[in-house]
Amino acid sequence: MIELSNKKLSIRKQAKLLGINRNRLAARPTKTSEEDLKIMAIMDELHMECPFYGQRNFRENLKDHGYWLGRKRVRRLMQIMGIESLVPKPSTSIPAKGHKIYPYLLRKRTISNVDEVWCADITYIPMEKGHAYLVAIMDWHSRAVLAWEISNTMDSAFCVRTLRAALRTTGRKPKIFNTDQGSQFTGADWINELRHNDIEISMDGRGRWMDNVFIERLWRSLKYEKLRLWSYQTIPELRALTADWIEFYNHRRKHQTHGYVTPWSIYNPPVCQAA
Length: 275
Hints:
Layout: H1 11-18, H2 34-49, H3 55-63, H4 71-81, E1 117-126, E2 131-139, E3 145-151, H5 157-170, E4 176-179, H6 183-186, H7 188-196, E5 200-203, H8 213-227, H9 235-251, H10 263-267
Parallel strand pairs: 1-4, 4-5
Antiparallel strand pairs: 1-2, 2-3
Helix pairs in contact: 3-4, 8-9
């Protein structure tokens, strides 16, 4: 009954006349222009190079690429991408209604065993037409990627599916699960899944990218070693490239941290058979 194109009555006025809550109306999709996509691709590169950049730094650096943007537009694009300046901030932010923020449990803790801590994060991936989001779950000690999924929307559903996939395919669960304070990881669906599996919940301090540094390094490696060297136009093409690199990362990319062996050989070492 709401007429979006009615020039005489605003949506707010129509909702009031009909006696309905305007906040319950389906949100109109926001169109992302071709220029926005190009700008977000540049911002993604800047964010990987300098994760501490905020609105002002993005705006100034975009001038070098020929884009003169206002702070409101930069802020809107950062929100679409799901990125923020990764520097310590005062505790003045208010969590989403009904979302509890859990304490960070890993400070000064030595992680020396697999499945002691798992972590998860989401990264923005620019595409020629639109963009995508990638979520991955990693074992903190071995650095092995246990599950991942790509989506064209940044909601909690694909995060929960990835968590269930990690629990199912490994047949294990961590003692502690660490994430940032993003709404996907503070919402009821994600929290209830962890509680159902008796997993302790840990969350980074707001803006503290170092609290989840290993998975931040994973994103950097994936983008610089694979995605920025290959072209892809569709989600299936992006998914195939990501799958190829993560297989290489888990099973063939040797890590200096563990004496130049692969993450998967640490997470799931081969069984030595007696002679």
